[in-house]
Design brief:
Number of strands: 7
Order of helices and strands: EHHHEEHEHEHEE
Radius of gyration: 15 Å
Shape: globular
Strand content: 25-35%
Length: 173
């Protein structure tokens, strides 16, 4: 079942997200980048322009995604990118994570479709933006199937060695 998160889902969503940071990204929780994960309720559940969606299987959260009304931060991202996707009018798609046992069943695509529908139905959004770490297996192919590349930071090395950040846009439905 895919639905908006409730307070009862917060711990399960946090577990899926933190597991992804440590297992798939290999660098774990970074306070400067991941404050929303610590405060899921205030970030996603109490702001009408934000949403955290979860996929629940047998009562357990197995996948997440979110929409926040923030654009990419400069730094670490280029200034021109932050100007192109300003906070307030940009729906940033975040935390699209699926527990490994539940991958390859369409959950990510369903979550992204529902998150994009939320952005389209929420007044004030002009664009849907996301960035991803393409070093994670399957991430680059997935995002290229649903979004348009805006900037490949691997070509400039802006995020440091070994960080494969690529920025994408999804047209508002």
């Amino acid at each position: 079942m895919v639905r908006p998160a409730t307070p009862a889902d917060v711990e399960g969503a946090r577990r899926v997200i933190l597991d992804t940071f440590y297992r798939d990204f290999g660098y774990g929780y970074v306070p400067a980048w991941h404050q929303d994960v610590i405060d899921i309720e205030n970030t996603y559940l109490h702001d009408p322009r934000h949403v955290m969606l979860v996929a629940v299987h047998d009562g357990e959260v197995v996948a997440t995604t979110g929409i926040r009304s923030t654009g990419p931060a400069h730094p670490p991202h280029p200034r021109w990118l932050a100007e192109r996707y300003p906070s307030g009018t940009t729906a940033q798609l975040v935390r699209v994570y699926v527990h490994p046992e539940h991958r390859r069943h369409g959950l990510a695509r369903t979550l992204v479709d529902r998150a994009c529908a939320f952005a389209a139905e929420t007044p004030g959004y002009d664009s849907i933006y996301l960035h991803t770490n393409v070093n994670v297996e399957g991430a680059e192919a997935f995002w290229r199937s649903v979004a348009k590349e805006i900037f490949d930071a691997r070509t400039t090395g802006e995020h440091g060695p070994g960080v494969g950040t690529v920025h994408f846009e999804i047209p508002l439905p």
